């Protein structure tokens, strides 16, 4: 498919917009809902995303495709795995510094490569294997630096482990999403994923419900709308531009998150924290170039 210069410009603009919305969503989750349970946050993320996605489906006339899909099992698996990944990721966002939690999400391509080696018996190239080792080294750097940095008193071992668990499940979800995308539209995938997130959040409410203020509800509304907007902006980016032209822009997410942490929360990451984050991003980029995988919404 040939893309005009206007298409490429719009594709890049949508991809940058997606990274900004994801960063703001991370900030909303990190800043709000400090007294409510993670199930409430996840439920609001899914429920408040649905109206945005439905409006998108109506605009593109894709409602019929959603209602007539025959890949219920695929959506169920992707929703269960991806939704559980989101639960762990939100735990990490709420209990570790934002740059650390965000950097951990970039471990997903590394785990996907390891999974292909172990379960699919694929033989990675030396470059891919080096990128995996390089990426895990970045995790060690960033986590160690964060625990030693007095700027980040809120970091916890449990939060870091949750972030890693979220990245593992995200890698599995990415593989399932790749299968679904061969026949399902972006709007259809986003709709059923948000429906699954809402359902998982409602199930988690059985484990406990914390007090909520109107500010918490407002931040949940913002997180849901921004999460849906980011998914759809990424889909619009891929409508207009080849993956190779826009995939690298996904790493702007870490730049925006660090900027928000500095200018909004007044916390400056250490040199080693930034170095570790950069190592993870570079290793994930090398893997993407090696296997040609396109960027997907991470959060």
Search tags:
299 residues; mainly alpha; 14 helices
Nutshell version of this structure?
The chain has 299 residues and is mostly helical. It is built from 14 helices and no strands. Helix 1 crosses helix 5, helix 7 packs across helix 14 and helix 10 runs antiparallel to helix 11.
Largest sheet: none
Beta-strand percent range = under 5%
- What global shape is seen? globular
- Average pLDDT, all residues: 83
Stretches with pLDDT under 50, minimum 5 residues: none
The first-to-last residue Cα distance is: 29 Å
Instruction: Give the C-alpha Rg.
Output: 18 Å
Q: Count of DSSP helices? A: 14
Helix content: over 70%
Q: What's the β-strand tally?
A: 0
Class inferred from helices and paired strands? mainly alpha
Question: What's the topology here?
Answer:
Layout: H1 5-31, H2 38-47, H3 50-60, H4 63-67, H5 72-95, H6 98-105, H7 108-119, H8 126-148, H9 157-180, H10 186-204, H11 214-240, H12 243-246, H13 252-263, H14 271-291
Helix pairs in contact: 1-5, 1-11, 1-13, 2-5, 2-10, 2-11, 3-10, 3-11, 5-6, 5-9, 5-10, 6-9, 6-13, 6-14, 7-8, 7-9, 7-14, 8-14, 10-11
Can you describe what's shown?
The structure is a single chain. This protein is mainly alpha-helical. It is built from 14 helices and no strands. It has helices at residues 5-31, 38-47, 50-60, 63-67, 72-95, 98-105, 108-119, 126-148, 157-180, 186-204, 214-240, 243-246, 252-263, 271-291. Helix 2 (38-47) crosses helix 5 (72-95), helix 5 packs antiparallel against helix 9 and helix 10 packs antiparallel against helix 11. The longest helix is centred in the N-terminal third of the chain and has 27 residues, at 5-31. It starts with a helix and ends in an 8-residue tail after the last helix.
